[in-house]
# Entry
Amino acid sequence: MPESTIVEIDAAARRLVAFIGDLARYAATRDDALARRSLCSPFSGLSNLDARAICVVARRGVVEAIERERIPLGHDASLASRRFARALGDLERAYRAQGATAREHVATVALAFELDATVVPAERAALAAAEIVAARYDAERPPGVAWEADELVRALERLARDARTADVETPRVPLLIREPEEPRIVKRRKAHFSASSLGTFAECERRWYYRYVCAAVEDRGSSASFYGTAFHWALERFHEDVPRADAAPVEVLERKLEAHLGTAFERFRSGFETNVEFELQRRRAKRTGRRYVAWFVERARAHPFSVIGTETSVELELDGYNFIGYIDRLDRDDATSAVTVVDYKTGSIAETADRYREKVARFLDFQLPFYYWARTNAGDRVTRLSLVPLKDASRDVAPIELEVVPFAGPRGYGGGAVGTIGIDELERARKKMVEIAASLADGPLERFPVTSDPEACTYCSYRLACRERPTRLEDRFGR
Ligand code: SF4
# Structure
């Protein structure tokens, strides 16, 4: 049914329209300034006092600070802040989803912030008008062209400016009823790239498509993934307290890490399916934690160093493409001031230094090359890359360590945990990162082939949806 709406909006309703526009721009850019402005809006779900407290405390970004629960808030404010951060994540994923529309953005904002239930009548009229403006903008776009946040914001600004005289006539279509779409080429927006997203693409383009283009729902995570999340969380806090191994006797360090692990596991308790699973993983982490402390102390005795960063956010622009990520730990050597990039691995890990080099050479792992270039670009002299295994409580912690040299020798297939990696190899990885980013950003992309390696599918979240996945020989009769 066509519906005619004459819009009259007051100042508060204009703020609502601005809020919707800010969130659209945030979804497109993840700009922290927009997240802060949205947080301080009267529609964010938080009181002005709490919103400002978060803005003051959040150094690296408000969403990150909320997710890591760095801000001392009351129970209700804490829940509201997490709802806010989750809403921003939903909007971002919705923006990047294939076939997404501007109208869906407005509807998602309304749902995520429960605007229908909380706003006053004038604001409700503004919300309806914003939805109509967004629907009209969708209808006017050529087929196959993705909606752009800036264009929606300009349309909303016109709405706010001309509101009193706006007479908008647009059919209102129930949100969940869709016409079948014609197949069309996916147009990927320019965005930030993470090393792990490039690694996903290199391993299986179909998986990348499911995760980053469709924003497909993944499973909620396994006990193993929550074990990893809790361990990372605990180590971050442990090294904020203990940047040097000589800060206290080893028993004290063990107790400190154990306390942080205890807190971390309680925090992520709901991620474990049963109490038994929770208890098993917690005990595994405690035992691994003791081995970690032993390694930390021993290493510092041999080569004294300080931890100079934990969960350090890094950004790097390469040939016009932006890459982002977090480095688990950065160490600075006392004697040489050289920096080691440390990555914790709570899952499977390359068995030798040469095996890891092999993965880099085959473009299956971009993480350490990216961190190397990001920190080098920031002025550090990075001389070592280290992967620290935290999976097996029955073995001593023995990292894979790669010393960065101008040219490394040929790769072998034996070898130990310590080896070298050439700057020429890191440079090849850097060029490949740009190449993949360019193909993803500048598309259009027409097809996303499945991997040819059935091993890559073993723990893939999209196994059930992915009919073309390769099968192992032994599984062929089963399908
Ligand atoms: S199941 Fe295998 S082929 Fe399919 S998306 Fe996952 S990794 Fe790729």
Notes: The beta strands are 2-6, 167-171, 192-194, 305-318, 321-333, 339-345, 382-389, 400-405, 418-422. The longest helix spans residues 275-302. The pocket of iron/sulfur cluster is lined by residues 204, 206-207, 210, 450-451, 456-457, 460, 462-463, 466, 469 (CB under 6 Å). The chain has a mean pLDDT of 82.
